[in-house]
Write a structure and sequence with these properties.
111 residues, mainly beta, Jelly Rolls, six-stranded antiparallel sheet, four-stranded antiparallel sheet, 52% strand
């Protein structure tokens, strides 16, 4: 197997990036892809960063608040959050999420 191209998801360590948010992180030169599992009731506080963020729900329901406006995300609704915009959220149910950041999250590379 060409390990410069193909990788095993099982080889990626799981990291707790926020209380109750367990992530497998993939970094490229231009993006960070964050595969997250979170149990119902766990939340991430309001924050902002220089990265554009695309947020997808693969399973469950997640309430994402952007600029103080809450929206319930599920498998049919996703978000594209511009850089430096305040946001946070809470898992309404157990969730599997994918966040894609551009440019890559330098702070996540240090985890």
């Amino acid at each position: 197997m060409d390990t410069s191209i193909f990788h095993r998801f099982s080889d990626i360590d799981t990291k707790e990036i926020a209380p109750g948010f367990f992530s497998k992180l993939i970094h490229t030169d231009t993006n960070t892809i964050n595969f997250i599992e979170v149990k119902a009731g766990n939340s991430v506080l309001r924050h902002r960063h220089v990265n554009e963020q695309c947020s997808f729900v693969i399973e469950g329901k997640f309430e994402l608040t952007v600029n103080d406006i809450p929206q319930l995300l599920d498998t049919g609704l996703f978000a594209v959050i511009p850089p430096n915009v305040w946001h946070g959220g809470i898992a309404i149910t157990d969730c599997k999420l994918i966040d894609i950041f551009s440019p890559a999250r330098e702070d996540y590379k240090l985890l």
